[in-house]
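Section 3.1: Structural characterization of target chains.
Under the original work plan, the team committed to producing a structural model for every single-chain target entering the pipeline before any wet-lab resources were allocated. The record below documents one such target. The sequence was received from the expression subgroup and is listed exactly as submitted; it comprises 141 residues.
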Amino acid sequence: MHLRLLLVEDDEIFERFVRAILEEDISQIHHARDMAETRKEISMHSFDVIVLDLGLPDSKRPQTVAEIPAIKQAQPDAVLLVASAFPDYKEPAMAAGADGFLPKESTAKHRAMITSIYAHLAKKKATPEESGRLLQNVAEG
């Protein structure tokens, strides 16, 4: 698939984990470590999917949720998925315009998060055959 992903994540281990899982199926993975880098990336590039960590060094959860409408306005065709270990932010993020919520509660739940990313990607861009293959790859892990 020719998909472009922006991963907004300040946790290097989590960033490497997501990159390792997705790099075979995503043609371009851009990485931003804070909101300032995110603004720069979305002004310079077009993305198919954006995974946005809500807790960033320069933008804590409420401020990051407040940024969602501007991100959606700048990238109207992108699927915007927010990631957080705090489920209380799911509803506000969705109300602000996020397309999905990815739980970051524990390493054991990373597989569910990655499956959710693939499911959202499959709905947006993949053919039924590609979707099935992607989800099968995740399930076989």
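The longest helix spans residues 110-124.
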